[in-house]
Design goal:
By secondary structure, the chain is mainly alpha-helical. The chain has 20 helices and 4 strands. The relative contact order is 0.12. It catalyses: N(6)-(1,2-dicarboxyethyl)-AMP = fumarate + AMP; (2S)-2-[5-amino-1-(5-phospho-beta-D-ribosyl)imidazole-4-carboxamido]succinate = 5-amino-1-(5-phospho-beta-D-ribosyl)imidazole-4-carboxamide + fumarate.
Length: 484
């Protein structure tokens, strides 16, 4: 049993959802093994093997392990040094009529690998729902701030204006791709099925007296009973560990998206334009009482980096498998697979908490725009002068000189940007002084940002949220409260 304690880490128990923590718990793992043994027995009985009805009934009645059975299994594992056989024995003690047919014809990977595939599939189901709710929350934020001008940044240097809502759509678009990738990975998952010790199905062929059709039907029936549409056509003793790498790839990509979003919010917090939630009694620093550290987003970045590197672990494991199987994957996978899904779950829950309490400071945003917009508006002022009968080259030279003077005052003397005051005091600009306020209205510089937000939400986000599993999750979602 000790080998499975890694499924319940302190991080998972504190921050992961109950659903995801339960999925990778010992109770769920060993119940799933029992369900797989029941599915095998049902299919073998249907195809003619002499399996008593009371064996099926006893198995079905004892799928959940009691604390006493966990203790028996732990003792058996210490004695046998084999987790699967320990649980075969333990299951037989509560289903004695089935003791002789539990695991009939199977190898250990029948339960371990098929269970892992079930967990991957159900883990994806949960993450898809959770990601859908996060997208819905950010969509609300983008809609609310669709036309609020803000300074855009390229190279983290002031650039042209965008809107707070438009910036949020950049986050959402990447999350939509992650949603697509999670669905693709889930839907691509197959089942190992019943393949035997080296994947040849020799044991099952012997059970059915050489009847190849029955062996194939057994594989199909167990796959169907276990909730999969198809089994992998060929395996060794295990399903290919490349499947694990394929499953963790979209989680790593989700980690990259989450890290970018959280980093943007951390930078905006430094600018005092947008902040994550901060409780009234929350302490940002033990020494600096004024601090409002973006601890939630910092946690997202920390865990997201871990999530992205777990994919490399799966790739390395897949690359060193020998022939039909080796065992140096086992302990690694028992940590890596649950850890990846638990980490993704925590990242999504934390980001969702952030998205549900984002605070925007429009006056700070407006002040920063005012500091930079005069420089950006110089071309508009030049064009207004030309329309008033001025010479473009002369206008350009006048505004160039004033711009450099204002720039030096900002950088060398630490003063505010006073380009507009300099323009108003220069008689050359008298023909357009009455237009200056209109020429510097921020909404003139945001282009089609509000319309882009509207179209994106309608044509791309809403269809994604209208899919059944996500729509139901969004409808049931309540505000996430984190123990921070």
């Amino acid at each position: 049993m000790e080998a499975y304690e890694t499924y319940s880490t302190p991080l998972a128990s504190r921050y992961a959802s109950k659903e995801m923590s339960s999925l990778f718990s010992p109770a769920t793992r060993f119940r799933t093994w029992r369900q797989l043994w029941l599915n095998l027995a049902l299919a073998e009985k249907q195809l003619g093997l002499p399996i008593p009805d009371d064996a099926i009934a006893q198995m079905r009645a004892n799928l959940d392990l009691t604390p006493e059975q966990f203790a028996v299994a732990a003792e058996e594992e210490r004695k046998r040094r084999h987790d699967v056989m320990a649980h075969v024995h333990t299951f037989g003690t509560v289903a004695p009529a089935a003791a002789g047919i539990i695991h009939l014809g199977a190898t250990s990977c029948y339960v371990t690998d098929n269970a892992d595939l079930i967990f991957l599939k159900q883990g994806f189901d949960h993450l898809i729902r959770s990601l859908g709710v996060l997208i819905a929350r950010l969509a609300d934020f983008a809609r609310e701030h669709r036309d609020l001008p803000t300074l855009g940044f390229t190279h983290f240097q002031p650039a042209q204006l965008t809107t707070v809502g438009k910036r949020a759509t950049l986050w959402i678009q990447e999350l939509l791709w992650d949603l697509r990738n999670l669905r693709r990975a889930r839907d691509d998952l197959g089942f190992r099925g019943v393949k035997g010790t080296t994947g040849t199905q020799a044991s099952f062929l012997a059970l059915f007296d050489g009847d190849h059709d029955k062996v194939e039907e057994l594989d199909r029936l167990v796959t169907e009973l276990s909730g999969f549409s198809h089994a992998y056509p060929v395996t060794g003793q295990t399903y290919s560990r490349k499947i694990d790498a394929d499953a963790l790839a979209p989680l790593a990509s989700l980690g990259a998206s989450a890290h970018k979003i959280a980093t943007d919010i951390r930078l905006l917090a430094n600018l005092k334009e947008v902040e994550e939630p901060f409780e009234s009694t929350q302490i940002g620093s033990s020494a600096m009482a004024y601090k409002r550290n973006p601890m939630r987003c910092e946690r997202v970045c920390s865990l997201a980096r871990h999530l992205t590197v777990l994919h490399q672990n799966a790739l390395m494991t897949a690359s060193v498998q020998w022939f039909e199987r080796t065992l140096d994957d086992s302990a690694n996978r028992r940590v890596t697979l649950p850890e990846a899904f638990l980490t993704a779950d925590i990242v999504l829950a934390t980001l969702r908490n952030v998205s549900e309490g984002l605070v925007v400071y429009p006056r700070v945003i407006a002040r920063r725009i005012a500091q930079e917009l005069p420089f950006m508006a110089t071309e508009n002022i030049i064009m207004a002068l030309v329309r008033a009968g001025g010479d473009r080259q002369v206008a350009h030279e006048h505004i160039r000189v004033l711009s450099h003077e204002a720039g030096r005052a900002v950088k060398e003397q630490g003063l505010e940007n006073d380009l507009l005051e300099r323009i108003r005091k220069d008689a050359y600009f008298e023909p357009v002084l009455g237009q200056l306020d209109a020429l510097l209205e921020p909404t003139r510089f945001i282009g089609r940002a509000p319309e882009q937000v509207d179209r994106f939400l309608k044509e791309y986000v809403q269809p994604a949220l209208d899919q059944d599993d996500v729509r139901e999750a969004v409808g049931k979602a309540v505000k996430v409260e984190l123990n921070v």
